[in-house]
Design brief:
Number of domains: 3
Oligomer: single chain
Pfam families: KAP_NTPase
Protein name: NTPase KAP
Strand order of the largest sheet: 2-3-4-1-5
Helix content: 55-70%
Organism: Thauera propionica
Shape: elongated
Radius of gyration: 37 Å
Strand content: 5-15%
Structural class: mainly alpha
CATH architecture of the largest domain: 3-Layer(aba) Sandwich
CATH class of the largest domain: Alpha Beta
Length: 613
């Protein structure tokens, strides 16, 4: 199975973008910079950010500058701690850790943490806010706040002075703290420490678009507090649409416009960077490498060959703009073409990529493609213990339909109940029409996805779909109906499906089944053969004629089924045989009286009546 975590392994040629982003951070030369990595859910923002981080300290000079990367995920702190407080604390802890080797810098780092603690406590409001406003400790929170005093005396004297109740540090009675002054002092202290440590602090903010609107805004506000300091950089990964939505929620009721919502984010982000959208080439390459990665884990592909395949794919994607497409021939060149299993995997990637790219339900989203393959391989693993043998491509083809056109998948699944041995004739006819360029039968529509899906290997029209549907119960309830047919009933059903006229083996099969089974089989076969019936050949009514001959009591049911005929389509060739059956004559009389019956049919009925006198 493929995990759903971010990675530095590049299957999508994101390395080019990561190089450019890292270069921007390096060229800032200590000046503050903020980069926004934008893209929808699952497109690879987190992976791109990790690739940037892995490139930053290449060729770095520790005597002049080292990039210290701090990754902050506000989603983790949601409902537990304010994202703003958590980010400030994380920055302070990292600076303290970096300063540990220098006693003088450690003291400065600890004082920085004191200021962070003050800013965090301010968010509590109530007693804390009153203490800040008056300088007088009020209540338990006020007393706790006093211990975070920031006077020079306390910083020099150490913890002993802070523990004395009469020493309030900067929060001495009638000496209120200026919060704006503390904020500026915090910024100055952090900037000074970064310069002395010779580090550039790069904060990667990830998963912002998974947060509730208030958490997202709180995080952006904390970024503003740290932003535009020398030797600081921010890389914010978020979906722009989500940020705009969060801003609207935050300012609900103010009549904020879309332009203002956009400007809010733009004021924080100097360099907007969008995750590249994937086309068919990228989707095909991504699927192929995922499948080869699985083959390595299964011992079917050598690790060294896989490394070369990744490199070859990256080179091909770099030049795809020149028309160097990721073709099936190219994919087969990555493997041993004599290995049938690996060839099958490359063919699978070739077939799936165009549809997973064009489908609005997937849109070549890397995370969704990975989840798609996870489902397919999970079902494959569940098949063998249940005695089911299925082609991997068949599993993928059916799941593709479930994922991209659920309505059609359900419509076809509903037909399996009445299909002979799970074979849906509509699929067979549609696959034939696709090959021949004809019109597609219901429930298919003449659209790109349906025709492309029908053209994928393997053909499902002649396949028993019950195993596929059984394995797909993770996505929908599957009911194959109550098959009450006995062994003799099934034998009769199969005989009637191919019978074109009366014959002795068929008669024996009817007698062997018995009237009860023949009753059930008559209705089932009549429904199964419906798509092939043109109402002009005697073989169309053989199931009704032959069963009612052996069991006359079933004539009434045969008449009811015959009455379903579309009168306009009935041909005169059916009339003579039908008129010989007493049960069929009332139906023929209805046809004769109907204005929809053709003149030849009415004449054939009139002729049959004369012959019966």
């Amino acid at each position: 199975m493929w995990h759903d975590n971010e990675t530095t392994t590049d299957y999508l040629n994101f390395g080019v973008v990561a190089d450019a982003c890292a270069k921007l951070l390096q060229q800032a030369n200590g000046q503050p910079i903020s980069i926004g990595v934008s893209g929808g859910w699952g497109v690879g923002k987190s992976s791109l950010v990790r690739m940037v981080a892995s490139r930053l300290n290449v060729d770095a000079d520790p005597d002049k500058n080292t990039y210290v990367v701090v990754t902050f995920n506000p989603w983790l702190y949601q409902d537990f701690e304010g994202a703003r407080s958590a980010l400030l604390q994380m920055v302070g802890d990292e600076v303290l850790r970096r300063a540990a080797a220098d006693e003088g810098l450690v003291k400065k780092a600890k004082r920085l943490l004191q200021r962070i603690n003050l800013l965090r406590v301010v968010q509590l409001g109530g007693e804390a806010a009153a203490t800040i406003a008056t300088g007088i400790p009020i209540g338990l929170i006020g007393r706790a706040l006093a211990k975070f005093g920031l006077s020079d005396e306390q910083g020099e004297a150490g913890d002993d002075r802070a523990e004395k109740d009469e020493d309030w540090g900067v929060l001495k009675p009638a000496e209120p703290v200026s919060l704006p002054g503390e904020i500026q002092a915090f910024r100055d202290a952090l900037e000074e420490l970064l310069e002395e440590l010779k580090i550039t602090l790069v904060v990667f903010v990830d998963d912002l678009d998974r947060c509730l609107p208030q958490t997202a805004i709180s995080t952006l506000e904390s970024i503003r507090l740290l932003l535009f300091l020398k030797r600081s950089a921010f890389v914010v990964a978020a979906d722009n649409e989500f940020i705009r939505g969060a801003v609207r929620v935050h300012f609900a009721g103010t009549g904020i416009s879309d332009e203002v919502a956009t400007n809010y984010f733009d004021k924080l982000i100097q360099v907007p960077l969008h995750v590249p959208r994937l086309g068919v080439n990228e989707a095909k390459a991504y699927l192929a490498l995922l499948l080869l990665e699985r083959a390595v884990a299964d011992g079917q592909f050598v690790d060294g060959q896989f490394t070369r395949a990744v490199q070859a794919v990256a080179e091909r994607l770099k030049t795809s703009w020149r028309g160097d497409a990721v073709t099936l021939e190219f994919l087969k060149g990555l493997i041993n073409p004599q290995n049938a299993h690996l060839v099958e995997l490359m063919e699978l990637a070739e077939g799936l990529a165009p549809l997973l790219t064009s489908s609005s339900k997937v849109n070549a989203n890397p995370r969704l493609m990975k989840r798609f393959l996870n489902t397919v391989f999970l079902r494959s693993a569940l098949a063998k213990p249940q005695g089911i043998e299925l082609d991997l491509k068949a599993l993928a083809k059916w799941h593709l339909l479930e994922r991209c056109d659920e309505a059609l998948a359900n419509a076809l699944a509903g037909r399996v109940t009445s299909a002979t041995e799970g074979r849906v004739d509509a699929i067979r006819l549609a696959e034939q029409a696709t090959r021949e360029g004809g019109a597609l039968p219901e429930p298919f529509k003449d659209e790109f996805f349906h025709r492309e899906w029908l053209g994928l290997a393997p053909a499902l029209g002649e396949m028993d779909l019950r195993p596929l549907l059984h394995l797909s119960r993770d996505s929908a309830m599957r009911d194959f109906g109550d098959d009450s047919l006995t062994t003799e009933g099934r034998a009769l059903r199969d005989a009637l499906m191919v019978a074109t006229s009366a014959n002795e083996p068929l008669t024996q099969a009817i007698r062997a089944a018995g009237m009860s089974q023949a009753d059930a089989v008559m209705a089932k076969v009549w429904q199964l053969k419906s798509p092939k019936r043109n109402w002009r050949q005697t073989e169309d009514v053989v199931p009704l004629l032959e069963i009612s001959k052996i069991f006359p009591d079933l004539g009434a049911k045969a008449a009811a089924l015959l009455a379903q005929a579309p009168i306009k389509e009935v041909g005169p060739g059916l009339v003579p045989l039908l008129y010989e059956q007493t049960w069929a004559r009332p139906v023929l009389d209805q046809w004769h009286a109907s204005g929809d019956a053709s003149r030849p049919v009415k004449q054939a009925i009139e002729q049959a009546r004369k012959g019966a006198r």
